[in-house]
Design brief:
The complex is a heterotetramer of chains A (about 350), B (about 425), C (about 425) and D (about 500). Chain B is mostly helical and about 425 residues long. Chain B has 16 helices and five strands. In chain B, the strands form two sheets. A three-stranded mixed beta sheet of chain B has the order 2-1-3. A two-stranded antiparallel sheet of chain B has the order 4-5. Chain B is globular and about 70 Å long. Chain C has about 425 residues and is mainly α. Chain C starts with a helix and ends in a 19-residue tail after the last helix. The chains are: A alpha/beta (about 350), B mainly alpha (about 425), C mainly alpha (about 425), D alpha/beta (about 500). The complex binds adenosine-5'-triphosphate (ATP) (2 copies) and magnesium ion (MG) (2 copies).
């Protein structure tokens, strides 16, 4: 559905998202955020959704201002890159409601701003565990778009999951693509050395890297690079059903239906739901600024099993692990576990 | 500006360059021997394996792993490189110098791999999968070769085709849509061929009929098509996602041949597009340099007036070749889609231009272009996959290598690239 | 009516300006066709007409509404929104809103002017600089580095920041220049590849101290202190982004005019570009000329980069001049549109900037993706590059020589 | 074959290159077209050869009207052409060039080189035109390249052969050889259309001479007509064909070349130990066949080519391997052999071309900024005093005629402070009118007390201009003789064999 059709439904409350340069179909959080608005619009006929994709970082501010002048009820911005622009706008317009995805502006708390962040290392941990359990070759792999926290937090949790599996099952499943090193995880320092594409668009690189991992023995790969992940799917397709992909950000079997067969599971970030809720709340007038942290506990991050082949026992284990992570008895910090 | 380069080169006496290259090679060799080789820790060893990733069509005959003492292997390889350098210096090779540089590059790459994969060592991967490197890089290489062939077809007839990137994009988009709709790569290929040919025709039409600047038109066709593609992507493909969910083409293994270790998986267990590419390379080289058609094309590209004077229609020849070139690039786009899947606007990520570069320093010959594309393909593959060997180089720097290598090599080709004399120059009878 | 007749004659005489204007018209037509061919609403309307053999009146209306809406918002988004403007004139309020479109257009035009002139200069020397983007990136990095890591009084700091930008670009220009001059490496290959190198280098610097934003592990740089920014012309409070970058662009334009039309070195550039043999025989050092040309071009590209940062975001992040935000190829097309002449380039940049800014507005109002702007831009350039075609379409008289001048020379061969 | 042209008219925009031209060529006839530059000769030939389409008029072959859409048609009709500017692909072999367009092929469209070579050999045998079928054309001397052009025409068994200024680039011997070939061809019944600016040979070889001026036929005359008559018909006024010059009064040597060795692009020592002195107030004319090193010698003197060994001294200053800039500033004036390549920038204005090699000199520029007014004034005075025909000094040089382009160069070089003037092929391709003018200027330079070095493959010119004549053969000076020496002896020197009585 395009904005035109959505917009044509006569609504009074305008929900607006300023996407990053990736645009509304980046197979990543821009898409998820846009989906959130659309769901909200479907749910509450009073809401109309519209988006503006940024041509460059320099167009964040004008885009936000354009939406402010269009009288948007809430303006959703996406990604830490919009941190500055959003914070400034929020301070300048205290009554304007904002929600920013994946970032806590390190700017003075301002009245209308809701920061949405997600402890994705929690569900990544589950992903890592499942990958380790499902791997036939005893090697799994991950790679990222760029060496930045929103990406490495996933890879970090993934490794933690694998190591936890090794420790408790006394196995030696190896992870390629991310070797965590000391760093204050709480402060968002997910240090380590790993494999990166250098951008979030180059699918060809995604495929090259993934087939490389396959060659090095991995049979499950966890790409954390938005659209680049499609390259991993291509690699898996090419080698038949022996290799599979752990999808990221959104439920692969929902977002990338066509490729569902190659997904073993999805490590999701509840951008869509949290944005959707924020918008609905704003429309109802129950919007609360401040910060929201998606966790397994509040369903803000979730692990989906996409593959029917996952044994029930494993599903059960994941349940208990989830409980453990929620209660904090299980740490998602890989450096807490011995290297398998 | 080749003329400018040439006139600049004239003043310089040729020997200087040979010397420089020679010493460069020697230095690299010494570095390999002592920089990487000596003192790599407690008697480490490196292992080469040859099993391909995909054995869906039955594995090739097994080739036992090859385990080498890292230190000595590196010293040996280094020595080989030094020898190459020495040869250049002693025999004052002017022509052969570049060949030696190429050999050096290959040997050095092997050395890097041996060094990176040493065990005990930092690498998470305890071996180098030689076959996988070749198979993996074959994908990128194939795409680039399609592009270079397209460039060669056009420029040999005297028309610069900078629009390859756009033709790739067009072929990819159309191919992917048709495959999504019909699940038939043959139809997709036809579609890509047509769109490529159309874009070729547009270039030809503007450049030949209206004598407008070929480089302008080329660049602009690319920007235009890039814009069009991403417009189309968000305006049409997003609402209708099942126009963009084709599968990737499956490999057609060639029974006997694919069993040959290394060679088999690389060349005989590929998609139809790969074989088509091989055929095209042979066909284009044959047609250009053996046949009457080729003679006439080259005449048109070198000296259109002379061709016209013997009754060859310069316009027709150029139209035909530019459209052919477009078609080849279009098919290249489909091939790309066939191995890469879903379309995204940034999918071709400059491959069209890189192919052009490859064509230039392949000296407008299919063979040269193939070499250049392979060099790029392999180095790109390694740039990404050396990362999991934990080489002590920052990711971003590592990712620069394919481009740096290309620059280095083209710098080595001192003034020796000589485009078809009439390349890029509009032709008018009066 | 003699005056009208004179106008008609001027129109028919197909001066470059006439051609450019007509090209604009044709470009818009192309855009319209694309909208019509791809917008469901319109297609359905026509399908309706087709099935129920009804008069196409409705369909026409729908078409005009949609296309009209699109182009209206391009205009109102990039130049001025008449009602809004009238409102300001009458009430004296809402000036920010009224002037924002123009302000944005000018803001976007600044780096475009500078970068395009950079490219134009190499074209005039018969060289092909596809590396403007990489050079601009280096300029941006260098500028931000000096701005954020050096501490100086503003009077020095801003100029130094801009100089740093230039220096960064010069480095980027020196590489293809020197390589070509001394090894004969083809500048197209080198500049092309260098763009990628520059991008990765940027990512590298953004991810490592000292440039990376402190206690941040994201790919984002420190923010330039106020003293090093190109301040908004009408003050930050005005809410208008148009900034002193305009002055820089103006200075560059004047410099380019001097360089190309008045300076000896510029004369030698043009000579070398037009006929390298004669240039050499006339005692011009081919190497020196092409290196200098590349240095100047790179320096300006670098300036474009730093002016862009210093005038807008004041920091660099991983998306700086990446992908569709890249400026290199746009600069090439603008340079060609402006026939490598400074003034032409200024107009070209304004047009491109307007389409870019208006494009976003169109997307905001109608949902039609802004990429359409790119298509229209390219179409315009194609028509400008093919005056004969324009002439045939509009039945113009013989062209003046200048309007068919060729801008490049193949691989320069 | 009998060729008849009726009312052929060809316009280029406003300019009428051919204006209702009527012409008849009988079988076995050698028919010569005379006319000044731009008279329309080549254009007419291009029309006849199907390269251009006439706006009006018709072409009849053996009485029947034919339409020649392209040169393919022309060739099929038995017309062959040797162009003024060779139509050969430099990187192709002789064989490839000859068969181009009419290639013998084997299966799969493959070229049949064996047969190609055979064709060439047979033609060579039949007409005594030897050439190696496998040599790359660019590696051949001009004379041989032309031979290839002729073979090309004959191998398509042309009945009418068009030769456009074929002798411009030949030695006297080669020229005589060509004349012989032409006669034998004519004898074997082939018709020949022959274009030349050289009245002497025209009168030698042709059966009929038709003079064209500014696109119109002025008239046809028998070869018995005197050279002055012909010249007058061509130019439309009386022209003196002899160079008036007083005896030289040589003074101190200004340009001294010692044991110079220079390699060409392929690394061959094409200038092999040349020593030469040019004194103030004298003209030394360097005679020699194209490709015997004169070009490289001049390039070395002017700093355009690296000197392997030996020295060049200009007015007491050693300028060996100095940059062209330094050498120009040292007072060397240069009229390059290939004027459009090395002498001018066609897209630039006449004014800019007038300061092409002095752009930074005061008053044309100060502190890197050009003084356009000064440049324009300078140009206007020169255009005035050198009588350059141009609409304005701002007009692009491309809009000037060849001769006028040459005048611009001459004016530019002579208006600089000079020690020595080096002029290569100063009158190549120019018509008698222009030649007369250029020669007068060169003599004036000498009389102003400068040293002048003329390089020319034009024997007449050499003998007429030179105060001393140096002959170059295969990179060496084979003799320095007095202009009174017989043409034959000089001719022998040019061919490498030293006749009696020369040093
Ligand atoms: N390719 C061309 N395109 C357009 N005009 C041309 C072209 N070539 C020559 N002309 C025009 O034709 C005129 C004569 O050119 P050309 O060089 O043949 O004269 P010319 O007779 O050789 O002069 P001169 O006798 O002084 O050498 C010039 O004014 C020039 O403008
Ligand atoms: N392609 C062209 N476009 C425009 N004008 C041309 C063209 N070719 C030739 N001319 C002009 O037409 C006239 C006839 O030119 P042509 O080449 O026939 O002269 P020519 O008699 O061969 O002179 P020359 O003795 O120098 O060869 C000249 O003025 C020339 O400049
Ligand atoms: Mg002429
Ligand atoms: Mg002629």
């Amino acid at each position: 559905a395009t904005t035109v059709s959505v917009a044509s439904a006569a609504g009074k409350f305008k929900a607006c998202v300023v996407t990053d340069t990736g645009g509304i179909n980046d197979h990543s959080f821009n898409a998820s955020a846009w989906a959130g608005l659309q769901n909200a619009a479907k749910q509450d006929k009073n809401i109309t959704a519209s988006y503006l994709s940024s041509t460059s970082s320099a167009s964040y501010t004008p885009n936000i201002n354009k939406f402010i002048s269009q009288g948007c009820g809430i303006i959703v911005t996406v990604g830490f890159l919009m941190d500055g622009a959003t914070a400034t706008a929020a301070n300048a317009h205290p009554n304007q409601k904002f929600a920013i995805v994946d970032d806590v502006p390190n700017a003075p708390k301002s009245h209308g701003l809701l920061a949405l962040t997600y402890d994705t290392n929690q569900d990544a941990f589950l992903g890592g565990y499942v990958a380790a359990a499902m791997s036939k070759t005893g090697v799994v792999a991950t790679y990222g778009g760029a060496d930045i926290p929103p990406v490495t937090i996933y890879m970090d949790g993934f490794v933690a999951g694998v190591r936890y599996y090794d420790q408790h099952m006394h196995k030696h499943v190896k992870v390629l693509g991310w070797t965590p090193s000391a760093g204050n995880r709480a402060k968002g320092q997910f240090n380590g050395k790993g494999t990166f594409v250098g951008n979030f668009t180059d699918q060809t690189a995604g495929k090259t890297i993934t087939s490389g991992f396959f060659a090095d023995g991995a049979d499950i790969v966890f790409p954390v690079a938005g659209g680049v992940g499609l390259g991993s799917v291509a690699a898996a397709q090419q080698t038949g059903k022996k290799h599979s992909i752990m999808w990221v950000d959104s439920d692969g079997c929902f977002a990338e239906k066509a490729d569902c067969a190659y997904f073993i599971g999805s490590v999701t970030k509840g951008v869509t739901t949290s944005v959707q809720n924020a918008v609905l709340a704003a429309a109802k007038g129950t919007f609360k600024p401040g910060s929201y942290v998606g966790t397994l506990a509040n369903g803000g991050v979730q692990f989906y099993f996409d593959s029917p082949t996952v044994p029930a026992s494993l599903k059960a284990t994941v349940q208990t692990l989830t409980k453990g992570i929620e209660s904090g008895t299980i740490s998602v910090d890989p450096t807490k576990y011995p290297v398998g | 500006m080749t003329t400018l380069a040439a006139s600049a080169a004239k003043v310089r006496q040729p020997l200087g360059r040979t010397k420089a290259i020679g010493w460069f090679i020697v230095v690299v060799g010494l570095f390999t021997m002592f920089g990487m080789g000596v003192g790599t820790g407690t008697a480490p060893h490196s292992t080469l394996t040859f099993t391909p990733i995909d054995v869906s069509h039955g594995a090739p005959w097994h080739l036992a792993n090859l385990t080498l003492p890292t230190e000595w292997t590196l010293v040996l390889l280094g020595a080989v490189i030094v020898a190459l350098g020495a040869e250049v210096l002693v025999r004052r090779l002017a022509k052969g110098a570049m060949v030696r540089v190429g050999l050096m590059a290959i040997v050095f790459l092997v050395a890097v791999l041996v060094w990176a994969s040493r065990q005990p060592g930092p690498s998470q991967v305890p071996f180098i999968n030689v076959t996988a490197i070749l198979v993996g890089s074959a994908a990128i290489t194939m795409i680039l070769i399609y592009g270079s062939l397209s460039g060669i077809l056009c420029e040999r007839a005297g028309v610069v085709n900078i629009a390859i990137e756009g033709q790739f994009l067009g072929g990819y988009l159309v191919g992917e849509m048709i495959d999504s709709a019909t699940n038939n790569w043959l139809l997709a290929t036809v579609g890509g061929l047509v769109i490529g040919a159309l874009l070729g025709w547009l270039l030809a039409f503007l450049a030949i009929r209206y004598l407008s600047d070929q480089i302008i038109v080329g660049v602009v066709i690319v920007t235009m098509f890039t814009g069009l593609a991403s417009y189309f992507n968000s305006w049409v493909l997003t609402p209708y996602p099942n126009l963009n969910n084709g599968n990737i083409a499956s490999n057609l293994a060639i029974p006997g041949l694919m069993k040959i270790p290394i060679i088999g998986p690389t060349f005989f267990d590929e998609t139809g597009f790969f074989y088509l590419m091989l055929v095209l390379v042979g066909l284009v080289s044959f047609a250009l340099f053996r046949t009457r058609w080729g003679l006439r094309v080259r005449a048109v590209g070198e000296h259109p007036q002379a061709a016209a004077a013997v009754g060859i229609s310069v316009e027709r020849t150029r139209y035909v070749n530019v459209i052919l070139g477009g078609a080849v690039a279009g098919v290249g786009g489909v091939a790309f889609a066939a191995i890469q899947g879903q379309f995204t606007p940034s999918i071709t990520s400059g491959f069209g231009y890189i192919a052009l570069a490859a064509m230039i320093f392949g000296r407008w010959r299919p063979s040269g272009a193939v070499a250049a594309c392979t060099l790029f393909g392999v180095s790109a593959y390694l740039a990404y996959n050396l990362q999991s060997y934990q080489v002590p180089i920052s990711t971003e720097i590592l990712l620069m290598f394919p481009y740096l290598i290309t620059i280095a090599v083209s710098a080595g080709l001192v003034g020796r690239v000589r485009p078809p004399a009439a390349d890029g120059i509009p032709y008018s009878r009066e | 009516m003699p005056s009208a007749r004179r106008l008609w004659d001027r129109y028919r005489s197909a001066s470059p300006i006439t051609i450019a204007l007509l090209a604009l018209v044709l470009g818009l037509v192309v855009g319209a066709v694309i909208i019509i061919a791809t917008t469901p609403a319109i297609l359905n309307a026509w399908r309706g007409t087709f099935h129920s053999w009804g008069a196409p009146g409705h369909a026409l209306k729908v078409t005009f509404d949609n296309v009209g809406a699109a182009y209206r918002s391009i205009f109102t988004g990039s130049i001025v929104d008449p009602p809004q403007f009238w409102h300001s004139v009458t009430t004296g309020r809402g000036w920010t809103a009224s002037l924002t479109p123009l302000s944005e257009t000018l803001t976007y035009a600044v780096p475009l002017v500078i970068a395009s002139i950079a490219v134009g200069i190499t074209f005039q020397t018969g060289l092909f600089n596809i590396g403007a983007n990489g050079q601009a990136i280096l300029g941006g990095i260098a500028g931000v580095a000096v701005a954020t890591l050096v501490h100086l009084p503003m009077a020095l700091h801003l100029p130094l920041t801009l100089l740093a930008g230039i220096a960064g670009g010069v480095v980027g220009g020196a590489i293809p220049g020197l390589l070509k001059a001394y090894t004969g490496a083809h500048e197209v290959i080198v500049t092309l590849m260098f763009n990628y190198v520059a991008s990765y280098f940027m990512l590298f610097t953004l991810l490592s101290t000292p440039l990376q934003l402190p206690n941040q592990t994201n790919a984002i740089s420190r923010t330039m202190p106020g003293g090093t920014q190109l301040a908004p012309l009408f003050g930050t409070s005005s809410g208008l982004r148009v900034n002193y970058g305009i002055v820089v662009a103006l200075a560059v334009t004047l410099f380019a005019i001097w360089l190309l039309d008045r300076s000896s070195i510029g004369f030698e550039f043009r000579m070398t570009g037009a006929n390298p043999h004669a240039a050499r025989a006339s005692g011009i050092n081919a190497r020196r000329t092409l290196v200098i040309s590349f240095l100047i071009s790179g320096g300006l590209a670098g300036l474009a980069g730093v002016a862009w940062v210093a005038g807008t975001t004041h920091y660099i992040d991983q998306n700086f001049l990446q992908g569709s935000a890249g400026i290199g190829f746009t600069a090439i097309t603008v340079a060609l549109l402006g026939r490598n002449r400074p003034i032409g380039i200024v107009w070209g940049s304004l047009l491109f900037a307007a389409l870019e800014v208006g494009g976003s507005n169109m997307q905001a109002n109608t949902g039609i993706p802004y990429d359409l702007a790119t298509v229209i831009q390219s179409a315009i350039v194609i028509f400008v590059a093919t005056p004969v075609l324009v002439k045939e379409i509009f039945r113009l008289r013989a062209l003046r020589a200048e309007s068919v001048k060729v801008a490049t020379a193949g691989w320069g061969s | 074959m009998r060729l008849e042209l009726r009312g052929i008219t060809k316009k280029f925009g406003s300019l009428t290159a051919n204006d209702h031209i009527d012409l008849i060529v009988e079988p076995g006839q050698i028919h010569c077209l005379l006319g000044e530059n731009g008279a329309g000769k080549s254009t007419l030939m291009n029309v006849l050869f199907g390269l251009l389409q006439a706006d009006e008029g018709e072409i009849l072959i053996d009485g029947e009207p034919v339409r020649l859409a392209n040169s393919g048609d022309a060739v099929r009709r038995g017309i062959g052409m040797v162009h003024q500017h060779f139509m050969l692909v430099p990187v192709f072999s002789v064989a490839e060039n000859v068969v181009l367009g009419f290639e013998p092929t084997r299966s799969l469209d493959r070229l049949d080189y064996a047969r190609a070579r055979e064709n060439i050999r047979s033609v060579s045998r039949e007409f005594g035109l030897e050439v190696d079928p496998d040599a790359t054309v660019e590696s051949l001397p001009i004379g041989l390249q032309q031979r290839v052009e002729i073979i090309k025409a004959l191998s398509h068994d042309a009945q009418l052969l068009i030769l456009d200024e074929p002798t411009a680039v030949l030695t006297p011997q080669e020229a005589d050889a060509l004349m012989a070939i032409m006669r034998s061809l004519a004898a074997s019944g082939k018709s020949i259309l022959f274009i030349s600016h050289k009245l002497k040979e025209v009168r030698q070889v042709s059966d009929v001479i038709t003079v064209i001026r500014s696109g119109r036929v002025i008239g046809s005359v028998p070869p018995t007509a005197s050279e002055n008559e012909l010249a007058a018909m061509m130019v439309g006024r009386e022209v003196s064909l002899v160079v008036q010059k007083s005896a030289a009064t040589p003074r101190e040597p200004v340009l001294e070349v010692r044991d110079l060795v220079v390699r060409d692009d392929r690394g061959l020592a094409v200038v092999d130990g040349v020593s030469l002195e040019v004194h103030a107030g004298e003209i030394v004319a360097l005679a020699g066949v194209q490709g015997n090193g004169q070009t490289e010698l001049v390039e070395a003197i002017t700093g355009l080519r690296h000197v392997e060994s030996g020295s060049v001294v200009l007015a007491g200053r050693d300028i060996t391997n100095h940059s062209p800039r330094e050498i120009l500033d040292a007072g060397l004036g240069h009229i390059p052999e290939d004027r459009q390549r090395d002498g001018v920038v066609l897209s630039m204005s006449v004014a800019d071309n007038m300061v092409l090699n002095t752009p930074r000199r005061a008053p044309f520029a100060r502190h890197g900024t050009r003084n356009l007014r000064a440049v324009r004034d300078h140009a206007e005075t020169l255009v005035e005093s050198f009588d350059v025909r141009t609409s304005s000094v701002e007009a692009p040089l491309s809009s000037l005629s060849g001769g006028n382009q040459q005048k611009v160069i001459v004016a530019r070089e002579l208006s600089r402070p000079l020690e020595v003037l080096v002029a290569s092929q100063p009158t190549r391709g120019l018509d008698v009118g222009s030649i007369e003018y250029v020669h007068r200027e060169i003599v004036r330079v000498r009389d102003d007390g400068h040293a002048v070095l003329i390089v020319s493959s034009e024997l007449d010119e050499v003998m007429a201009l030179g105060d001393r004549v140096a002959v170059m053969f295969q990179g060496r000076i084979t003799g320095i003789v007095d202009p009174s020496t017989s043409r034959e002896d000089v001719g022998l020197l040019m061919a490498g064999s030293a006749p009696a009585g020369t040093r």
